[in-house]
Every structure is written in structure tokens, then in C-alpha cells.
Fold this sequence. Notes:
By secondary structure, this protein is an alpha+beta fold. The chain contains ten helices and 22 strands. The chain has two domains: 3-127, Creatinase/prolidase N-terminal domain (Creatine Amidinohydrolase, Chain A, domain 1); 129-354, Creatinase/methionine aminopeptidase superfamily (Creatine Amidinohydrolase). A six-stranded mixed sheet has the order 4-3-2-1-5-6, with helices on both faces. A four-stranded mixed sheet has the order 8-9-12-22, covered by helices on one side. The chain is elongated.
Amino acid sequence: MTPRTDDVLRAARAAGADGAVLTHPAHLRWAAGFTGSSGVLVVSAGAAHFVTDGRYDAQARAEVAGAEIHVPGYRLFEHVAENGLLGDARRVAVASSHTTLASFNRLVGLLPDVELIPLDDFLDAEIAVKTEEEIDRLRAAQALTCEVLESVLPMIVAGVAESDVAAELVYHHLKRGAERMSFEPIVASGPRGALPHARAGERRLERGDMVVIDVGGVLDGYSADLTRTVAVGEPGAEARRVYDVVLQAQRAGKAALTPGGAGRAADAAAREVIEAAGYGEAFTHSLGHGIGLETHEWPRLSRQADDVVPAGAAVTVEPGIYLKGRFGVRIEDVVVVRAGGAETLTPMGTDLVVL
């Protein structure tokens, strides 16, 4: 057992269970250090077992800490059941939001004497609180993405296709050491910028366009998430005003983040700035989300969620204004919630860049 597997058992017991079965890759990495894509971690009182297939034999033995390693082949759940790896546990927690119905039903059939307890939020709070080592990894991932975006800015000129900019962002991330992208980059110009999750298309940039760029790479397992809105030539007075409103909203959202505070309070602080400027209906999403081994983690900074933000949580702060058929503006940083105020992990400045 390790401190992390102890945390798993503690979280299971808090939910009325006496054991846990984990299969989600991010959970396996967080709890046991395994970076592969196939495995089962079984935790019960005084024991932890990690089960994987032959593809990951050497990798598991090199990476997994605090659990006995089993490599039975591809029948992982069957091995857990046939070898009694749950010990005396009879009420077992399962992360239902990361477990398919087929997998859940297989476990039910294989473990007739065990009651499976599906928990939608299992380990969310534990994973949200980052160690200083994890924060350093997030900081490095965010710095890499900023470096990539700054290197690509010179190609963002009139006549270039959104898809070409997106391709360069991916290429330079991989060239500079990213494992993969956190998500498919968003490059949305002119009227397409009013679509918060627009995919990069074949539209070619035009002078005066505002261009929303949302991008992130994964480095050492941890995700970056960065949005900057840049202008191709002079964007005009209203675009500059909207940009300033979004920037002030982001600053307000950051200032409202306190350990133990409500995520909805940070959302409200940012939203108040945008509403006061007359753009309330144009801010169509929540302020942010947790980030770490996954791009989207708990907690949410949203008026529709009651999440309480713990000290040490890493979250995005990304207000936006989207004017249908015209343009959009979003500015996003990753911050860590600390007692002395939110620490921004994003080294790139937030002033409007006019290219």
C-alpha cells in the first residue's frame, strides 16, 4: 500500500464501501503510477493488487508502486474474481462515470457475493488537490503550450487557413516533446469565433479578424489548456472593448478563487463584469474546470454546480463573449488555488496581440 492507495481505501470507506476497483487510466496513474491503457487496481483493507495484460508486463513492474502485480492475460476481471483479490471486502466502490455498463455488469456476474457501489464522483476531491510536484508538471505543460503558440503567432496573417494554424500547433507541440494534444485545437476566426467550440476549418483569415485559439499539449502526463484571442490587423473599437471586458472578467474570477470557496462564486464574479458591460447573454458557458491528468476534472467553476474548490486545486479561468455572426473573445489561464490567492501557471501575457 502507498499513500495514494490508502487514499483510495479511505474514500471508499467514506462512501460506505470496504474496497474499490479502479479501471480508468487516469485513476490508475494517479493511484499507482501506471501509464498504460489497460489495467485494474483492486484495493481492500491491507492489500492492493494491480492486474494487467502481457503487453504491459515490463511496464507495470517498472511503474506500479504499492500494489502486487498480476499479469494473467486478457481476462483481468476474471482473474480478480477467481483469485479472491478483493479479500474480505463485500461492498466495493466503482467509479461509475468511468465504467461502462458492460464492465459493470461483468463485475456483477463475476462477483455474486459482492455489492458494487457505483459512485459518480469517486476520487474527484482527492485527485483535485495537487501536490507541488503535480503543480510543477502542470506549470511545465502550460509553459510548453505558451512557447508553441508564441512560435506560431507569426504565421497568423490574412490568407492563412484556420486548419493550417491548427496543424502547426499540433506539429510544434509534438516536435517540442508533448506526448499528445490535450484536445483538438480550436482556431476560430471572424464570425466563427462566436462558436465557443468551433473546430478549425478551411476559412481563411481576413484583416480585422479576431481569432480565438484554444490549445494544449500533454507533458509528463499533465494537460495544458490555454486560450488567447488575437487580432489580424486592427480589430476595431468594439472588439477592443469586448476584449477588455473579458480580461477584466478573468481577473475578477481569479480574485474570487479562495480555498474552500464555491466555484459558483468565481463564476459569478466574472459574470458580473460581463453583465455590467451589457454582454451577459453572450457569456454562454461556465468560467472553468479542474485540470490535471485529464483536461477536464473536478471541480467546476459554474453557476450550475455546488462544487467547493479546495486549496491546491488547479483550475482553468476562461470567460468569453460571443457575438453571433460577428466575432468572439475568450481568455484562458490555468491557476492553482492557494491561501494567498490564485497562482497563475500560464507565463504568456494577456494583453491583446495585434498581428
